[in-house]
Amino acid sequence: MRTQSVFLRVVVMKIKVSQVGWVGLGLAHMAIACSSDPPGQVSAQAGAGGVPSAGTGSRFGASGGKLSSAGMAGVGSVPQPPMCRKTSDIDAPDGEFTDANCDGIDGDKAKGVFVSPNGIDTASGAFGAPVKTIAKGIALGIAGKKDVYVCQGEYAENLVVEGNVSLGVYGGYVCSDWKRTNQRPIVNPVAGFPLRVKNVSGELVVDRLEFLAPDAKEPSGSSIAALVTSSKRVLFQQVRLQAGKGAPGAAGTTPAAVPTAPPQAPKGEDSLAVGVECDCATAPAACFLAPGFTFMSQSCETPEGPLQVYTGRGGDGANVKSCFLGNAAGGVGKPGLPDDGAAGQNGVPGAVGQGIGTFSEEGYIASNRGLPGGLGLPGKSGRGGTGGTSDVSFTAVGGNADYWWVGGRGGYGGIPGCGGLGGGPGSAGGASIGLLSRESEVNLDWSTVNTVAGGAGGDGVQGAAGQPGGLGGPPGRCGISAAALCGATAGQKGGDGGKGGDGGPGGGGPSLGVVAVGIAPLLTAVSFDVGRGGLGGKSVANSVVPDALPGISADYWPVDIRPVVNGAAGAAGMAGKGGI
To answer: How far apart are CA 449 and CA 219, in angstroms?
Structure first.
């Protein structure tokens, strides 16, 4: 839902008294002053003296009043042609469109740089030789210490004003005769900021222009009509600041699948006494040696860094040295290293993007993105198989009547699977902002600020499944023959890796009329039409993570505002001269 509001501040208005009387013997006639304001009422009296115009204080310091028009004595009854009465050698463009120096325009022809869509940038910018772009006009104005007069039309430009400059940029002029109206020229670039003001230490006045920011295109990009940073004494009058749509945030990146299961664990070692005489009377050394170990491993990424995981160790086979004892149980398989084939824990889900982003010298940063899901943990090693049994026999081998055999090792436990990668987080939506003022002194008077909508937050993405655990190894052989197992068993399968955590969704982008960081602007009679914040991103189905919240929508959004000392009161203006 869109909201409309008007921000009004009580101000002291400067009133100009400029009624001119025409008195004759017969009919009275109305005087025509050099102003685009509606003419005054019919007067049959002698012109009265001008009323002094009191100066008003502002954050920019004192400013004096403007010299009012002088009255004029009546003459004959014959109608007189319109005439311009010069009231000042200085004629800065004003809200009444008054030609104070009677040079034919509201402003000073000799001290202005003229800009028209029909001009050429190789021209001088003087009256009758306008340049084509406002940027060229600003460059000439700064170089020549002149104001810039812009006539109606569209200008696809990204305007930048920076440095130690004092400049006025005035719109509303008609290209054909340079008369002034309230119809604003439009600055509408294809991409980027229509107006950027940075590090201005002089005084900048922008009057009767419209700044139309395009919709943002890049994910999480913002549309900002005017960006003012680290500047002093910036005055906007009768401007329209129109932001476009903030761009939606990107959905999280789908994590890469973990490779297939690791290779099968090694076979348990055969008895060293296979085919070897283990005579009860004279046994060789092989009958008493325990077989060695043959471990396998792989490296898994974990939240704490790489981790090497191993196969489980198979159990030792039994080795009964004494004869005539009958069958003896083999050794029990050792536990897997480090555990018994349990699955790994799932990764921690990523948090949802919350709140609002940050405001920098470069604009809005959509930092309220979701967080990535955590890595799943590796599974546990499979338990090693049970070792084979040993026994004695009366069957002669090599001429000996009595011997025993040694049981083979149980199969090695399977290699555990690695944990799955976490799901990618959703990016936050971009902003739609009319004016972003950061650490700057800004006045915004009698202006309109519009936004469309913040960008939607990006959705979170599901974490990847864990790697399956590897198969356990087969058991080793005992000492009777090459094929005999004597009860040894295979190792168990390794534990599967845990699933990666789901990524969190990104927050919706804000829609804000005026954002102020550090220093509060002065807003006088500002009309707002602010669109909605962007929708929050969606979480993964059946996830414990909630959906993200929508972006904030507000006419005015202050951030870390500090107190500002007001300027001193302005001096009184001069009185107008009496009628003759």
So the answer is: 24
DSSP label of 285? G
Question: 563: pLDDT confidence band, cut at 50, 70 and 90?
Answer: confident
Query: What's the pLDDT score for residue 271?
Result: 75
Q: Retrieve residue 234's tokens.
A: 């910036």
pLDDT tens, residue by residue, 229-275: 999 999 999 999 999 999 999 999 999 988 899 999 999 888 766 55
Task: Answer for the pair 482, 275: CB distance below 8 angstroms, yes or no.
Answer: yes
Helix (H) or strand (E) holding 137: helix 134-144
C-alpha–C-alpha distance, residues 191 and 216, integer Å: 7
Window from 304-313, 413-422, 514-523 with minimum mean pLDDT: 304-313
Kindly list the distances between the CA atom of residue 441 and the CA atoms of 235, 335, 526, 556, in Å, as whole numbers in the listed order.
9, 73, 17, 16
Q: Give the C-alpha distances (Å, rounded to integers) separating 118 from 130, 276, 543.
A: 8, 107, 60
Beta-carbon contacts of 9 under 8 Å, excluding residues fewer than 6 positions away, are 522, 523, 524, 525
Q: Give dist(CA 213, CA 552) in Å, integer.
A: 20
CA distance 348 to 544: 10
331 CB contacts (<8 Å, ≥6 apart)?
315, 316, 317, 318, 386, 387, 407
Q: Could you read off the pLDDT of 497-507 as tens digits, one per residue?
A: 999 999 999 99
- What string of H, E and C letters represents the secondary structure of 561-578? EECCCCCCCCCCCCCCCC
Say how far apart CA 170 and CA 214 lie, in whole Å.
22
Q: How many C-beta atoms surround the C-beta of residue 72 within 10 A? A: 21
Alpha-carbon distance of 215 to 245, in angstroms, equals 5
Residues 321-363: tens digit of each pLDDT? 545 444 444 455 554 455 668 999 999 999 999 999 999 999 9
Q: Which two tokens stand for residue 327?
A: 């069958």
| Helix or strand run (H / E) with residue 140 | helix 134-144
Instruction: Tell me if residue 110 falls in helix, strand or coil.
Output: helix
Q: Count the helices and strands in the chain (H runs, E runs).
A: 1, 26
One-letter amino acid at 293 equals: F
Instruction: At 139, give phi and psi (nearest 5°).
Output: -60, -45
Structure confidence at residue 268 (pLDDT): 86
Beta-strand pair 147-151/167-173: parallel
Q: How far apart are CA 65 and CA 55, in angstroms?
A: 4
HEC string of 446-493? CCEEECCECCCCCCCCCCCCCCCCCCCCCCCCCCCCCCCCCCCCCCCC
* CB contact at 8 A, 479 and 400: no
Q: How many CB atoms lie within 10 A of CB 3?
A: 14
Collapse the DSSP code of 237 into the 3-class scheme (helix H, G, I; strand E, B; otherwise coil) and give the result. strand
Arithmetic mean of pLDDT, 548-561: 97
pLDDT digits (tens, 9 = 90+) for 42-80: 333 333 343 333 343 444 443 433 333 333 434 444 555
